[in-house]
Amino acid sequence: MATRKRILITGAAGFLGSHLCDRFIKEDFHVIAMDNLITGDLRNIEHLFKLENFEFYNHDVSTFVYVPGELDYILHFASPASPIDYLKIPIQTLKVGSLGTHNLLGLARHKKARMLIASTSEIYGDPSVNPQPEEYWGNVNTVGPRGVYDEAKRFQESITMAYHTFHGVETRIVRIFNTYGPRMRLNDGRVLPAFIGQAIRGEDLTVFGDGSQTRSFCYVDDLIEGIYRLLFSDYALPMNIGNPSEITIKEFGEEIIKLTGTSQKMVYKELPTDDPKQRRPDITKARAILGWEPKVSRAEGLKITYEYFKSLPKDVLEKVEHKDFTTYNK
Ligand code: NAD
Ligand code: UDP
């Protein structure tokens, strides 16, 4: 039997990290999962614990990272990712994007592993061009409430390119646009779990601002396929991966009302500070270089995600930590 390739996945107990674990187990890798569970949940990966080619380390990657044995690949996905999470834990967000990335790049260099980092459309800030191509440099408020995330991710890209250029580490940078699917945390404050949770609990849907701001939602399976292809490509510059189908938040609310059949309505709340007014990926590069584009329509993806949320235990469905986003929006 050929020796399995060994991959370290940070943020493994989170939404995207857990789907990446599944994918690399399916591809017969030895998966070393790492997470400090600050926003993740072991239930996302508990089905993998019985496998001999899966191991888990409960560790904060912002402190020195030790992994015994060889490593072929590192996927760095550890980071708070929802606006509410990074407003609640701003320092940890800055640390995991900066110190955490530095530690993992050092590990990649030492092990001669290829490392892919999870960057984000947030590096474009509140963009003045739409759709956003990779060449757009962004419009970020460094000291606003979202700055802790945006700047950590911008620094993460810079240090990753520096390790690539100066130390010859093989690196890949994916800029992820709003992604959804099973295993999102119901109460993480992101718009899709917020709306679906509200519909299930029989509450009104909270639209921030007048709902004219846009987002472009990608189903998780499509994203994972894009990341998989990018990792095995030879492309080291940042690459957008997302679904270019753009929709206003108000229209999105209407879709959720139709999907769930709720008799509740949309209510309008204050728009959070620096909330981007438009967001849509230009995926010309992903199409040309990876031969990738999203396959799952919003209608299909939302249906699967709604079924997932409905299947959660009652106590999880009813636990709402953040009723009002604006509480954190100082
Ligand atoms: P998530 O909160 O579900 O997962 C993040 C995981 O990282 C959690 O399990 C958390 O416990 C872990 N973590 C955080 N800090 C850590 C630390 N210091 N040490 C170890 N583990 C730590 O979020 P997600 O949506 O799965 O996002 C994963 C990555 O993808 C993040 O880097 C995020 O910035 C990026 N991203 C996600 C989206 C999206 O739409 N989901 C969009 C853009 C970028
Ligand atoms: N939003 C909303 N109601 C909610 C949660 C979010 O109207 O209960 C809006 C939010 O203001 C933003 C969009 O939905 O314009 C997407 O927010 P999310 O937190 O999902 O992610 P973002 O793209 O802002 O990082």
Automatic annotation (TrEMBL):
<keyword id="KW-0333">Golgi apparatus</keyword>
<dbReference type="InterPro" id="IPR036291">
    <property type="entry name" value="NAD(P)-bd_dom_sf"/>
</dbReference>
<keyword id="KW-0325">Glycoprotein</keyword>
<dbReference type="GO" id="GO:0070403">
    <property type="term" value="F:NAD+ binding"/>
</dbReference>
<keyword id="KW-0520">NAD</keyword>
<dbReference type="GO" id="GO:0048040">
    <property type="term" value="F:UDP-glucuronate decarboxylase activity"/>
</dbReference>
<keyword id="KW-1133">Transmembrane helix</keyword>
<comment type="similarity">
    <text>Belongs to the NAD(P)-dependent epimerase/dehydratase family. UDP-glucuronic acid decarboxylase subfamily.</text>
</comment>
<feature type="domain" description="NAD(P)-binding">
    <location>
        <begin position="8"/>
        <end position="304"/>
    </location>
</feature>
<dbReference type="InterPro" id="IPR016040">
    <property type="entry name" value="NAD(P)-bd_dom"/>
</dbReference>
<dbReference type="GO" id="GO:0033320">
    <property type="term" value="P:UDP-D-xylose biosynthetic process"/>
</dbReference>
<keyword id="KW-0456">Lyase</keyword>
<dbReference type="GO" id="GO:0005737">
    <property type="term" value="C:cytoplasm"/>
</dbReference>
<keyword id="KW-0735">Signal-anchor</keyword>
<comment type="pathway">
    <text>Nucleotide-sugar biosynthesis; UDP-alpha-D-xylose biosynthesis; UDP-alpha-D-xylose from UDP-alpha-D-glucuronate: step 1/1.</text>
</comment>
<protein>
    <recommendedName>
        <fullName>UDP-glucuronate decarboxylase</fullName>
        <ecNumber>4.1.1.35</ecNumber>
    </recommendedName>
</protein>
<dbReference type="InterPro" id="IPR044516">
    <property type="entry name" value="UXS-like"/>
</dbReference>
<dbReference type="Pfam" id="PF16363">
    <property type="entry name" value="GDP_Man_Dehyd"/>
</dbReference>
<keyword id="KW-0812">Transmembrane</keyword>
<dbReference type="GO" id="GO:0042732">
    <property type="term" value="P:D-xylose metabolic process"/>
</dbReference>
<keyword id="KW-0210">Decarboxylase</keyword>
<keyword id="KW-0472">Membrane</keyword>
